[in-house]
From TrEMBL:
Annotated source species: Culter alburnus (Topmouth culter)
Principal location: secreted
Highest taxon, organism lineage: Eukaryota
Protein name: Ribonuclease A-domain domain-containing protein
Similarity comment text for this entry: Belongs to the pancreatic ribonuclease family.
GO cellular component terms attached to this protein's record: extracellular region
GO terms of molecular function: endonuclease activity; hydrolase activity; nucleic acid binding; RNA nuclease activity
Keyword Signal: yes
Subcellular location: Secreted
Keyword Secreted annotated: yes
Amino acid sequence: MDIHQSAVILLLILSVSSFTHGQPDNIKPRYIKFLNQHYGPSMTEQKCTSEIRKRDITGNDDGCKPVNTFIQANSNDIRAVCGRGGTPQGGNLFKSNQPFPVITCKLQNGQRPPRCEYGRGKRSTRYIVLGCAEGWPVHYEEGIPDTKKTG
């Protein structure tokens, strides 16, 4: 299992390296962590527990993360929220100009990894609010429901 997790992390880092050209070195680890936690173009509602375990996503206290949201879009569209694709919200926060499909995974039971169980995720369409650093997303703040769609 440890080899599998290491391989996934290595693959993520290698795939991200093509996205980070021209990125300041101090931003790169934060952006990679953001992608690991929230980038999910092929995520499904059924994969919450397995993806969160595979990606070793934990809460701030290294316990089970209560909620994690995966954005189902390509990395360029997500990054655009920190520029022309988003509207400043104050501080380093930007709200997307267009809604994104997301899957939100909520902790069902468990307190410490690897016993975190998330059950079935919820698919919805939301305007995403991201924390950005020098034009790069580094934090998922929240999702605001798209009232024009159900979900």
